[in-house]
Each structure stands twice: as structure tokens, then as C-alpha cells.
Amino acid sequence: MGTYYYEDLKKIAREVKAELAGEGSLTKKKLRLKPRSPEKTALLFEMAINRLERYRPYRTEKGIVLPYFYSDRAY
């Protein structure tokens, strides 16, 4: 197994993305601007709770906070 360097992988990824964009098979990233339904939000929250034992997610007025992704800059 070879050694992979981050800069080399980054260069390869950039070339592949450019090639896929040229073919038209690369889709743009989308932001979710439409709010989720309360039922869907509740389901996602319950799924997160069921998966986690140690770092339990909690809700704020902005949405669901996953402690393992928490950053002081985010909130």
C-alpha cells in the first residue's frame, strides 16, 4: 500500500471535479432553504437520539445541535 499525501489527493480531486463538471454529471451543492416539517424534524431528532448514547443531541430555537459537531462559532 502506498503513501498518500493530502496535497496530491486534493489535486486529483480538483481534476476529477473539473472533468465531471465538463461532462455535466456533477451537480451543484444545494442548501436547504425551505424549513423542514415539524414531523420530519421530530423524526430526525429521534433517529439521532437512538444512535447516540454518550453525546445526546438537543434542540434550540435554530434547530438540532449535535454536540460532537458543536463549535462555539456555530452558535
Q: Judging from the principal axes of the Cα atoms, what is the shape?
A: flat
SSE pattern, N- to C-terminal: HHEE
Please give the order of strands in the largest beta sheet: 1-2
The computed structural class is mainly alpha
Number of helices: 2
How large, in whole angstroms, is the Cα Rg? 19 Å
- Helical amount: 40-55%
Low-confidence stretches: none
Tell me what portion of residues adopts beta-strand conformation: 5-15%
Question: What is the CA–CA distance across the termini?
Answer: 42 Å
Number of domains: 1
Query: Would you report the number of β strands?
Result: 2
Rounded mean pLDDT is 77
Largest beta-sheet details: 2 strands, antiparallel
Features:
mainly alpha; two-stranded antiparallel sheet; 2 helices; 2 strands; flat
What does this structure look like?
The chain is mostly helical. It has one domain. The protein contains two helices and two strands, in the order ααββ. It has a two-stranded antiparallel ribbon. It is flat, with a radius of gyration of 19 Å. The mean pLDDT is 77.
What is this entry, summarized?
By secondary structure, this protein is mainly α. The protein has helices at 6-23, 38-51; strands at residues 58-59, 64-65. A hairpin with a 4-residue loop joins strand 1 and strand 2.
List the helices and strands and how they pair.
Blueprint (H helix, E strand, L loop, with lengths): L5 H18 L14 H14 L6 E2 L4 E2 L10
Antiparallel strand pairs: 1-2
